[in-house]
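Page 37, continued from 36.
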């Protein structure tokens, strides 16, 4: 019960905080189970990706736009291709073409490593390995 001066009794406030904590835990679990991300998480990954791009001397805007196009900036993204191969992680490394460089497990669970490998490939001129770059599908994210 809330009193006239908007004061919530201590016991009721404690129960509300406990409920909120339980709801937050449930939401975190659902995010993990279904691979959902908050906008804040996407922005955090964008900031990390831009820093890695800058370190490697490549265009930060295009690098980030390609990541949004490929994976939605989601480190846990998995996409199955019509040809039977699968793309993994924030960089969408294809298991056939990049499996000897980064394993699917690494691509999904070590996104910093994945971003650095992608940046190294770009520095070597291999941007067209990413379909969003090759087909210019990244442009809406610029």
């Amino acid at each position: 019960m809330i009193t006239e001066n908007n004061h919530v009794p201590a016991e009721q406030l404690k129960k509300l905080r406990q409920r909120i904590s339980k709801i937050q835990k449930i939401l975190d679990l659902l995010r993990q189970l279904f691979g959902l991300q908050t906008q804040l998480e996407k922005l955090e990954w964008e900031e990390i990706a831009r820093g890695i791009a800058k370190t490697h001397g490549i265009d930060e805007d295009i690098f980030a736009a390609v990541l949004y196009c490929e994976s939605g900036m989601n480190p846990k993204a998995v996409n199955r291709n019509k040809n039977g191969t699968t793309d993994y992680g924030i960089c969408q490394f294809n298991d056939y073409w990049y499996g000897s460089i980064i394993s699917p497990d690494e691509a999904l669970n070590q996104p910093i490593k994945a971003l650095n490998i992608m940046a190294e490939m770009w520095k070597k001129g291999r941007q067209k390995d990413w379909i969003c770059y090759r087909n210019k599908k990244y442009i809406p994210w610029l």
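The beta strands are 78-80, 86-88, 93-94. Flag for discussion at group meeting. The mean pLDDT is 90.
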